[in-house]
Amino acid sequence: MFDLGRSFLAAVERRPNAIAISDGDLKKSYEAWFSDIQRAAHGLERLGLKKGDHLVAVMQNRWQMATLHWACQFSGIIMTPLNWRSSADELAWCTNDAEARVVIHDDSAQEAVAGCGRSTWQCVSVGQPGNDNAISFEELCAETPSEIILRADPEDWSLMLYTSGTTSRPKGVPRRHRAERAAAVAHLAQNMYSQEECTLGVMPLYHTMGVRSLLSMALLDGHFVCVPKFDVEATLDAIEREKITNLYLVPTLYHMLIEHSAFSPERVASVTKLGFAGASMSDGLLQRVEAAFKPELFVNHYGSSEIYTFTIDQKASAKPGSSGRSALNQRIRVVALGSESPDDLCKHNEEGQIIADLSSDEAFEGYWKRPDADAKSIHEGWYFTSDTGFFDEDGDLFVTGRVDDLIITGGENVSPAEIENALSLHPAVEEVAVVGLPDEQWGKLVVAFIKLRHPITEEELDAHCVSSGLARFKRPRRYEFIDQIPKSPVGKILRRVLVTDYGHPTSAN
Fold first, then answer.
1. What are the residue ranges of helices labelled H in 135-260?
2. Which residues contact 405 (CB under 8 A, 6 or more apart)?
3. From which residue to which does the signal peptide run (predicted)?
4. According to the model, what pLDDT value does residue 287 have?
């Protein structure tokens, strides 16, 4: 099997003059970009990094960030990207956990890097320096190596992503070259990409979706279009200017695109393939995205940082809510809630915890220095995702939420996703999030937080829930109309924020 460095080199040899990357007005062919990547790899080695060391990168999606990712794949250094919104405390904790010897950042993270004070690592800056000892990216890349740097093999570590750490410190997820390449190949097949595709590079390169977009383009001589951070008008400009052919985004970004006044079907006419992941897409949004883009292919990808793909549905709008079936490199089961046995299987339409086979070509092998997390998530060769869901009679998987999100009200289990899907179909509802809030009588009260398009009463929404067929115990007992639904930087609903802000006990009937 190829490592990722050889995979990129093959693209250079096949189509040296094809456009590989663009960032605004800057465009580089595979041949020209390979030269930059080799100089960056040489610069990292001159700083003392060797195979198996961690490079922490805290940058937006600019061409320098993508260059460093590939430089690490040639040199055998472990690319360790962090959220550029990280605080100084978060940055210091992760760099210490990864035992990083070099940190590279751009202006978006300059304040956090400076806030770390004296450190044991060398700082490299794109823009304003993070400390007095920083060198510039140009200085890093000043020398050309005397021979091609190609040091990694398929068993070497390629990448370490950090999970979001919503309830504890983030966990490192180390992944080998072979797993990263297998995930990229599967991404190509499952999204039916063809040679010389052009993709939007706006999903962060500290997130598995952004990394997959970057790697997959090089495997078929495609064009990766950098958009440093999501902005609707900049994104639409990039799609129109570069004739982007596919989008791979979280549902929130699709929502922001199609709801913006600058959006028009004509501006995105080059896009023929859509994919989404990272969160469920409500039935209402699914219909609106389908109508706005009229794609030839609309893929729902369900996976994680630990194992890139769980399931795939290549006809996302045909069965709203379905995440499809096991992907190219995976087996999926649903087991009883609370069970640690992969053989404690649920029946069709019975909700349980979703688990995935760790024998997958795309799988990680355990968390970085976290045996406690391994003990919680890995049992008998299966990864317990902490996601809840069920298989329907056809064998399609429906993901209903997280184990921790499940609402137990009056002794009944209620899935927020089912209620959100029903409410999303009302024309007055732009976005919705459902949580369980503490309640003296019911234990948890089902509460719907709604961003409206136009005014509507609670009674009208309740009537809509009745007409949609929601069981009485599942219907919201309280509605909160809010200006924005809180979300993470990659578009996941932050239910814990709603619980914290609105979670005072009630005695509603």
1. 137-140, 177-190, 208-219, 232-242, 251-259
2. 388, 416, 435, 495
3. none
4. 93
Q: What pTM did the predictor assign? A: 0.86
Terminal alpha carbon distance of the chain: 62
CA dihedral over 252, 258, 263, 269, signed as positive or negative: positive
pLDDT score of 443 more than 80? no
pLDDT digits (tens, 9 = 90+) for 31-85: 999 999 999 999 999 999 999 999 999 999 999 999 999 999 999 999 999 999 8
Q: Which residues, including other chains, have CB under 8 Å from residue 327's CB and lie 6 or more apart?
A: 186, 190, 303, 309, 310, 311, 312
Cα-to-chain-centroid distance, residue 183? 14
Sign of CA dihedral 469, 471, 477, 482: negative
CA distance 84 to 206: 9
Write down the domain spans for the chain. Answer: 406-502
The architecture in CATH of the region 406-502 reads 2-Layer Sandwich (3.30)
Rg over CA atoms, the chain: 23
